[in-house]
Amino acid sequence: MLPTFDIEYIFLKLRANSVSDIAKFSITDKESGKEIDIELDLKDVEIFRPENHELRIDLGNNVSLEMKYPTYDALTKYHDGDETDIAVKATFDMIKVSIDKVLVGEDEVYEFKDYSETEVDNFVESLTSQAFRDVQKFYDTMPRLEHTVEYKVGKRTEKKVFTGLADFFPSAWAT
Q1: Structural domain boundaries, residue 84
Q2: 102 and 83 together in one domain
Q3: Are residues 40 and 102 in the same domain?
Q4: With CB atoms 3.0 to 4.6 Å apart as the test, which of 53, 65, 128, 146 could cross-link to 141 if both were Cys?
Q5: Are residues 101 and 115 in the same domain?
């Protein structure tokens, strides 16, 4: 299965080829409150890959995690519900599907898919708060669909950053 950012890219390019390369929409300027019409050439939109992104997370003591990108299926499966306990469970579930391997030293490789759900749960629950922060950094710096549009408001030049299909979708699918 493809990672979420690849699926978003494919959907955006399908829209560009089937409807139009140019998406027109309005945004509200934060400073003036004015509605600003913007055109975005979807051919220019690419996947942004941050330089500081790492697939490997060092846990210390010669142990590291090798991560994999969540798929669209995983995101929709684990992002249901608004209650705190559901959100916490969804976070743990997302971490579990994103850990591909546990590496110990240079020779020992433990693939998460080879372990029971209970064993995986116990491992994830045993991670330190620093490990959780490092996993969060993995998600924060993951490749994503992103594009910056500059626009004029009077003499000012402003920027609007679109990130992920949710930002592009309302405008990109409009005619």
Answers
A1: 56-140
A2: yes
A3: no
A4: 53
A5: yes
Burial class (CB in 10 A: 0-12, 13-18, 19+), 167: middle
**Sheet harboring 156-163: ordered strands across?**
46-48, 144-153, 156-163
Q: Residues 43-46: contacts with CB within 8 Å, 24+ apart?
A: 43/16, 44/147, 45/9, 45/12, 45/145, 45/146, 45/147, 45/162, 45/168, 46/9, 46/145, 46/147
Q: Which amino acid is at 136?
A: Q
Residue type at 9 in one-letter notation: Y
Q: At CB < 8 A and 24+ separation, what contacts does 77-81 make? A: none
pTM, two decimals, is: 0.80
Cα separation of 99 and 68, whole Å?
A: 6
- Three-class DSSP category at 97: helix
